[in-house]
Amino acid sequence: MHGTGRYRPTMADRPRNDDWWLASDGKWYPPELRSDADGSVTSPMDIHDASRVTSAALTNATSIAVALSSSLFIVAAFFGFRVAADIRESGEVLSTVGEPATANEVAFGAWLSFGLLAFVIAGVLVIAWTYTTSKALDARGATERRWSGGWAIGSWLIPIANFVLPKLVFNEIEKAAQVPFLGDDIANTWRSETRTQLADLWWGLWVTGVLASQVAAILASSEDAPASALADGLTINSVGLLVMAGAGVAFVLVIRRIAVFSRR
């Protein structure tokens, strides 16, 4: 209690003043409860600046991983087209059990494997980026969000629904990030912002690429399928890889745009 007779809160979910500090329990405390030996106070705005550095590092790592997987998919698609052409030219599957694979088949398998490995790493980073960015916007006081918290992770992991839910999460993130952070809660002002056509392009390409890979798998799944069906499957799969590579480029542009807005 202070001399004014008013109650002084001892902690809060968000800072009440510029000199409040964030403790390891995730709560904000007034300066008089600071336990540092030197008595220094970490300003909430300083903490916001530090979080931007972390966000920038994660954004860069995610961008590099996505760009790398996209590049590897492009190379794999090139050799996929070549294998499909070889099959159509010969009229039969080029290599069977016990026979050596052709140079194009080896190259296609190798580049695709590297691409899928990079894709898995990129996927983990994308989920981490989505979650941390979503939490940062919550810390700015964004309210009336429907797809925050665990949805930033779970939206990617629910079969069928992951064709829609991650985009809904990103719609909110993109809108909320456009509201300048001036120290006060942004509340529901983000709802008046609009998502970009670039984000819609990214998601459209991503869904198209995934569906193409599924169609290719169906065409090539039967053991007694004719060589022409396998060639068609490889062609469609290669097209899907190129489309997913395009989605990767668009995605990198989207998250870097969001990162720029979030630093204002």
Number of domains: 2
| Main sheet characteristics | 2 strands, antiparallel
Structural class: mainly alpha
Shape: elongated
Give the H and E element order.
EEHHHHHH
Q: Estimate the helix proportion, in percent.
A: 55-70%
Strand order of the largest sheet: 1-2
Number of strands: 2
Rounded mean pLDDT is 82
Radius of gyration: 25 Å
Distance between the termini: 37 Å
Sheet-strand content, in percent, reads under 5%
Summarize the structure.
The protein is an all-alpha fold and 264 residues long.
Write the layout of secondary structure elements.
Elements: E1 21-22, E2 28-29, H1 44-90, H2 103-139, H3 151-157, H4 165-177, H5 197-219, H6 227-262
Antiparallel strand pairs: 1-2
Question: What features would you describe in this structure?
Answer:
- With 264 residues, the protein is an all-alpha fold.
- It is built from six helices and two strands, in the order E-E-H-H-H-H-H-H.
- The chain has two domains: 1-42, no CATH class; 45-262.
- Helices cover 62% and strands 2% of the residues.
- The chain has a two-stranded antiparallel ribbon with strand order 1-2.
